Amino acid sequence: MVQKERRRSPRAEGEIPVVIMTMRGPMAASMMDLSLTGCRIRCPDLPNFALSVRISINGHGLELRAERRWHRNKESGWRFIYGDREQERLKEALHHIGRLRNTAETIVQPFHTSER
Known about the structure:
This protein is mostly beta strands. It contains one helix and seven strands, in the order ββββββαβ. The protein has one helix at 84-99, and strands at residues 12-22, 25-34, 38-42, 52-57, 62-72, 75-81, 109-113. A hairpin with a 2-residue loop joins β5 (62-72) and β6 (75-81). The radius of gyration is 14 Å and the shape is globular. The model is unreliable at 1-5 and 101-116 (pLDDT under 50).
């Protein structure tokens, strides 16, 4: 059975270092995928009570406010909350990430558009 895609915007998959700002302070994490609407993050130490955070995307000068949508084991899904200016900066970052696909400048594993 093929599962219907529920995402509104295409997702870029890969791994990029991020910092999550929680009430406990900053926590290192890995962003596993990214879109204009949200992201999936792997963070083994993220507290269960972290429902709203700021996510700093290293190397792209972005810090976005996000709300947690789901949490399973070490991974969680986040929906971004931002204004028009921040959305434009995120679009630029997504475009830049796409151009860096074949380099290891800031991306551990190259991002690619999801085929889902």
